[in-house]
Amino acid sequence: MGGFAQTVTGRIAAAELGRTLMHEHILCDLRAPGERIPPSPEPITMENRFEVDYFQNRVAENMFLDDDAAADLDLKHYAAAGGGTIVELTIGGMAPQPERLAALSRATGVNIVLGAGWYTQAYLPPELGAMDEDALQTEIEAQVLHGAWGTQIRCGIIGEIGCSWPITPTERRILSAAAKAQRATGAALTIHPGRHEDAPAEIADIVMAAGGDPERTIIGHMDRTVFDRDRLLALLARGFVLEWDFFGIETSQYWMAGVDLDLPTDYMRLDLIRTLIDRGYLGQIALSHDICTRTRLLANGGHGYGHLIAHVAPLARRRGFSASELDQLLVKTPARLLSFLS
Ligand SMILES: [Zn+2]
Question: Is the pLDDT of residue 193 over 80?
Answer without folding.
Answer: yes
